[in-house]
Amino acid sequence: MNNLSKNYINGQWVNWTGDTIDVHESGTGEVIAKVPASGREEMEQAIAAADAAFATWSESTLEQRIKVLEQLHAGLKERAGEIAETVCREVGMPIKLATGIQAGLPATITKTYLNLLPDFPFSEQSGNSEVQYAPVGVVGCITPWNYPLHQVILKVVPAIAAGCTVVLKPSEIAPQSAYILAEILDGTDLPKGVFNLVCGEGHTVGDTLIKHPDVNMVSFTGSTRTGNLIAHAAADDFKRIALEMGGKSASVILPDADLAAAVKGTVNNCLLNSGQTCTALTRMLVPAEQHDEACELAAAAVAKMTPGNPLEESTRLGPLASAQQRDKVIDYIKLGIEEGHTLVAGGPEAPEGCDRGYFVKATVFGNVKPDSRLAQEEIFGPVLCVIPYSDEAEAIRIANGTQYGLSGAVWSADADKAKQVASKLRTGQVFVNGGAFNPMAPFGGFGHSGIGREFGKWGLEEFLEVRSLQL
Ligand code: NAD
Q1: Active site (annotated) includes residue 244
Q2: What's the confidence (pLDDT) of residue 306?
Q3: Does 1 score more than 90 pLDDT?
Q4: Could you tell me if 110 and 253 lie in one domain?
Q5: What is the pLDDT of residues 332-353, one digit of tens each?
Q6: Which protein family is it in (predicted)?
Q7: pTM value?
Q8: Do the domain assignments include residue 443?
Q9: What is the mean pLDDT of residues 111-119?
């Protein structure tokens, strides 16, 4: 990456000589890069470029769009090793997982759009009307740090495929993979101005992007707090919004489930990316009479998660992405102890041998009260709450008893029963008996977890307006 000191505006790498933002290596705390803390002026230039490019790109043929996405897909494959290492260093996901997920998923998602685009109905007939699906316009994309390139790709690829133009403001905590994307797109046939990248803080460049009258849509992934600000700002001039926000997802283990498999599946999911995953199953609901056994199984599963340098192949649990995030998670662990839940594993001290970097012990609390702050608030770290329940109706009530509704899981020996309970969860996706992740299935949240859906045709439709011609 040669362009980290620049922004990418109107097909050019534009020098930035003002203040910079330090990017830290999560495993050591060292500064590994500096990126622009750009000003509002750079953001305005990028929006103007995207606005100017829209007239042409919105009229581009499907073949042109597919060609660019094929070139992008090839570039993502070619630079996969670099992407995995970059995100591993920034975010702390162990390198093996980062290779499959942080680098692999962006290419997979791009491929899913390449597969669905040729048959996507950009117009259809309804009675005497031709219904057309037209690009929304200039899209502002704002993304977080936990799956930094994946979250960018989920917006940029369908937006470009829809005929929209884009201004991306990536997370300032993990911005480097967005630069790799910009470098790849710079080498494709994408016309200048269709994709722009401006790096900086949320309260400056992010704020300009969400309030600018020439931005027609904001597609955001991040915290519910920031999503709320964006929804308010967008209301002023009726911008379209798509919001992917926080979660506090429940794994409901029914009495007849294979307890060991269900606990293992839940713990692995909860600790993925050190718990820095919006869909993490952070509340494990177990029948009261199986509570102690479930806690023992969870403690044993957690003990296998060797913490360490995420660049080493043997590491199972990496650090968190920033000192701020580490401190926030430690405060929650202290809160859990103060609230009187049973500390089953882990605790607020750094794991042994991990004095540098942003490490937190994988922690399990038992007998957690469903209405406590620990069970209600998104922690975004390796902390699992085990919550006992008395019957199925109570389990469903507890699972649905937070402001969120992003993901969930149900485990039962009876597949129909599991599906029945899954259908009662007020959440955007439910994993039934460990069902596999599907990059073609819609992804998004109920309630405070989100508005809109990403992935597959649902992700593309977010970027399309509907027009009907009465003939
Ligand atoms: P965040 O809300 O702090 O930041 C996200 C982005 O918003 C960053 O680029 C940031 O600079 C920008 N931003 C901050 N303030 C802004 C403002 N006033 N105006 C415009 N932009 C602003 O979130 P984070 O800490 O980076 O990410 C963690 C959160 O993201 C968690 O809550 C997590 O659950 C959520 N998340 C959700 C999903 C999902 O798909 N639902 C996926 C991943 C992460």
Answers
A1: yes
A2: 86
A3: no
A4: no
A5: 999 999 999 999 999 999 999 8
A6: Belongs to the aldehyde dehydrogenase family.
A7: 0.97
A8: no
A9: 98
DSSP per residue, 145-206: SSSHHHHHHHHHHHHHHHT-EEEEE--SSS-HHHHHHHHHHHTSSPPTTSEEE----IIIII
Domain shared by 185 and 48, yes or no:
yes
Distance of alpha carbon 151 from alpha carbon 72, whole angstroms: 16
Count of domains for the chain: 2
Residue 319 alpha carbon to ligand 1 centre in Å = 19
Q: Give the CATH number for residue 83.
A: 3.40.605.10
Same domain, 169 and 265: no
> Do strands 363-366 and 342-345 pair parallel, antiparallel, or not at all (unpaired)?
antiparallel
Ligand 1 neighbours by CB, cut-off 6 Å:
142-146, 151, 169, 171-172, 202-203, 206-207, 210, 221-223, 226, 229, 244-247, 278, 378, 380, 406, 445, 449-450
Verify that 277 and 156 share a domain, yes or no.
Answer: no
Best probe residue, ligand 1, of 38, 105, 212, 221 (max atoms within 8 Å of C-beta): 221
Is 398 inside any structural domain? yes
The reply to whether 337 and 353 lie within a common domain is yes
Query: How many A from CA of 244 to the centre of ligand 1?
Result: 9
State the distance from the centre of ligand 1 to the C-alpha of 379, rounded, in angstroms: 14
Catalytic residue among 42, 172, 244, 454: 244
Dump pLDDT digits (tens) for 56-113: 999 999 999 999 999 999 999 999 999 999 999 999 999 999 999 999 999 999 999 9
Q: What is the mean pLDDT of residues 213-232?
A: 97
Which residue do the tokens 């600018």 mark? 212
Distance (Å) from CA 241 to ligand 1 centroid: 14
Tell me, yes or no, whether 222 and 278 share the same domain: no
Residues spanned by the domain of 361: 249-438
**Residue 49 is which amino acid?**
A
Amino acid 409: pLDDT = 98
Residue whose tokens read 């680098």:
103
